[in-house]
Every structure is written in C-alpha cells, then in structure tokens.
Amino acid sequence: MLLPNYFKHAKLLKLNRMDKNKNKTPIKRNNLVISIICIGTIIAYVAFVSCYPITKKESDVLLSQSDKPHSPYLLQRDTMDGGFSRDWMPHFVPSEEYWVDMHAHLSGVTSANDLKQLMDSWFSRLDAFRLGKVVVITEQSEMFKVFSEAVANDSRFAWFYWPKNDEPSLSLVRESVRNGACGIKLHNREIMEGKVSRDIWQHEEWQNIFSFAETAGLPLLWHVTQRHSYSPYHGGGLYAYWQTGWANGVTFTNEDLLQDMLAIMLLFPKLKVIGAHQLHVGQERLQLLFQEYDNLYIDSSCGMYLRWADEFIMEDCLLLCEFVERWSERILFGTDADIKPGSIDEYAVQGFLCHARFMLKLGLSDKALQDVAWRTSNNLLKLKPVSAARRGNVRP
User: Fold this and answer.
1) What number of helices (H) and strands (E) belong to the chain?
2) Which of the listed residues 12, 19, 337, 360 has the most CB atoms within 10 Å of its CB?
3) Residue 331 to residue 380: CA distance in whole angstroms
4) What is the C-alpha to C-alpha distance for residues 131 and 123, in angstroms, rounded to an integer?
5) Side-chain half-sphere of 173: how many Cα atoms within 13 Å?
6) How far is CA 76 from CA 28, 87, 393, in A?
7) For residue range 139-160, what is the model confidence (pLDDT) as tens digits?
8) For residue 278, what is the DSSP state?
9) Pick from 345, 363, 337: which is nearest to 100 by CA?
C-alpha cells in the first residue's frame, strides 16, 4: 500500500492565497491549519497501515505492478536525436506487431471467390485488431488447388489439412503439402466417442504419415484430450465426447490418450506436435512435458482466454505471465475460430479478441509477446512474415 501524497494537496491549497495587499495574518493562520490537517491525516494513515501490515505476497504484487515492461523503443528515445524525445509517451507498453491465428476452422467454401469474400469479410473486422494471418483447418481435399492459389496470392491465408483418422491417406497428405499446406490436424474425438479404435495411430498407414511429416518438417496440431467438466467461462460443455464414448463402452481415460500421443512423439523424436487447447492440463504438468519433450508445443485456444469485461486476479496473472515468458517459443496463438459464410459477426470477433486480451493483459515482455503473437508460428509453420505497416496516421 502506497502513502498518498497529501503534501501535494496541501501545496495546491496554499496556492489559493489572499491578495498581497491584505493582512498577512490570515495566510499564516491558514498555513497552520493546513499543516495540522496534513500531520493529523498522516498519523491516522500510519495507524491504519500498522493495523494492516503488507504481506510478502502483497509486496510482490506491488513490485510486479511497478516492474511491468515498457516498449523497448522508449530506450531508443533516450539516445536518438541527442535524447530530444526522451520520455515522450512513457506509458507505451509492448504491442504485438501482428497476430497469426494458427487455429481456425474453415467450412462452407466451394470456390476461390467464396474464399476471397470470406477472407475479406473476416479481415474487415479484425485488421483493426492487428490480425495479420489466419491458418485455417479444412477437410476439403477437393479445394487443394484453390488453397494453393490463395497461399500464393494472399498473404493473409495459410492452411492445415485435416485427414479423417479412420481413412489415412499418405498420398493426400503429400498432395496437400504440394499445394501449400503447412501442417496436419488430428483429432481424437471419434476415439473418445468409441467410434474409432484407440490404437488407430499405431496402424501402418498412420505410421507412414508420421514418418513423412517428421522428414518433411510438417507439424501436427493434435486435439488429444477433452476435459470432463463444464467450462461456461468460454462456453465448454459437460463430458463433451466422453458421454457418447461411455455409452459405447469406452473405459480408457484422458491420461491414456495423452500417453498414446507421447509414445508417438518418442517414436518420431523430430516430429513437431502442437497440443491443442494446452492438452487440457495445467501449467505444472505442461512445464514437465516441455522439459521432457523438445518437440512439444501448445496453442492458446480456448484456455488462454479473458472475457471482454474481465481482469486477471493478480496472483493468477503472475503465475501465467511467468509460464508464458519462460515458454514463449513453444506457445502459438490460436483461437479455434469457426470461419464460414454468414458467421462473421460480433460474436465471432469477440472470440478472437478474448484470446488476444489474455496475452495483452499479462504484461509480457516484448520478446515473449512477439513470440506468441506471430514469431513461434512463423518459425514452426514456415510462414512468410506479414507487413505491420499502418494504413492511416495511427495503427489501432
């Protein structure tokens, strides 16, 4: 708790002096009264503070608030042009150059014109919030040529191919890469629902795909597990996928599915795997996994989410900030957005902004913020950088 600057208020009161030509005695009397008030207020404040000592945790919070990073360009202004602009706008904090949303779903598109209109509509809403590129996920193999042209001609667009897990086709995966796919999406939904055998990933066809992906440097975005509980904060349901699976006789658990993924990663140690939705495990478990598996990454979708009216509880903010700072080169920004014709509205836009808000409110260093926002995605997915140039006199 910080001592209020009562002397500042006293100084302001003193400025209201009587005319110089009037008797000086009232001024002295006023000064005496002001001094007594200030001294009494300070004594009362000290007495209050003595009854409410600052704990170590509160001290850490105060330190963290005063130690938030600022834009690195403030330091440049200290020396450039002989320091002429030193301290100009010292409140500027690190800001993302742009966002790469590497986890968005695309559907309802049947032509190049459909795709262009959809991209124009999406970016007309989110360009103002610095969305630079979106990596869409699609099962539409008939659209490979259209996606290839989009990758070549539209810097805003990149894509993942999502093969059906019960119909693995190495030839289709190869074709997707020839047409510009920068990754593969896998999903354990049908396994959790008991519709596909849990050992599907051990089949020869999938082992051949994993081997190809490892050799080609093609990352996997893998939805491996699913939490059981409700998550009304971001709109998640109760026992999603599992309820159907249990009715179909499923007895394995999330831990079993996680171990299946880790076994694949050990078998293909250079295969890069991005665990969707942070694998639905906490920061302590993630840190252990990161330390053990150099080829493991996560995306930010669904969990790294802060709603429009909310602020972090400070203790949570400190822990999350420390985690993201340490592992920023293993975290990719993603939103799980559903992009399709007729779906571009405020509801969809806020879903993106809640993910961006989470990162911006953590108080990350400039390096960590750029890593998560775009750099880690660009490096891992081999994406071309996007221009961060402004379109007007300022950039929102």
Assistant:
1) 16, 9
2) 337
3) 10
4) 7
5) 27
6) 49, 10, 21
7) 999 999 999 999 999 999 999 9
8) G
9) 337
d(C-alpha 274, C-alpha 381), whole Å: 11
Of the candidates 291, 296, 309, 289, the one whose C-alpha atom is nearest the C-alpha of residue 357 is 309
Helices (H), 183-339: 189-192, 204-216, 242-247, 254-267, 283-292, 314-326
C-alpha to C-alpha distance for 378 and 384, rounded to whole angstroms: 7
CB 366 within 8 A of CB 69: yes
CA–CA distance, 198 with 18 (Å, rounded to integer) = 87
Q: Using one digit for the tens of pLDDT, what is the confidence trace for 178-216?
A: 999 999 999 999 999 999 999 999 999 999 999 999 999
Distance separating alpha carbons of residues 319 and 307, to the nearest angstrom: 19
Measured over all CA atoms, what is the biggest interatomic distance in the chain, rounded to whole angstroms?
A: 102
Rounded distance, CA 283 to CA 342, Å? 37
Crossing angle of the two packed helices 6-14 and 25-51, in degrees rounded to 10: 170
Q: What pTM value is reported for the model?
A: 0.83
Sign (positive/negative) of CA torsion 136, 138, 143, 145?
Answer: positive
Task: Mention every residue, 6+ apart, whose C-beta is less than 8 A from residue 395.
Answer: 130, 388
Cα dist from 231 to 69, 227, 228, 239, 356, whole Å:
32, 9, 9, 10, 19
Backbone conformation region of residue 194, classed left if phi is above 0, alpha if psi is from -120 to 50, else beta: left
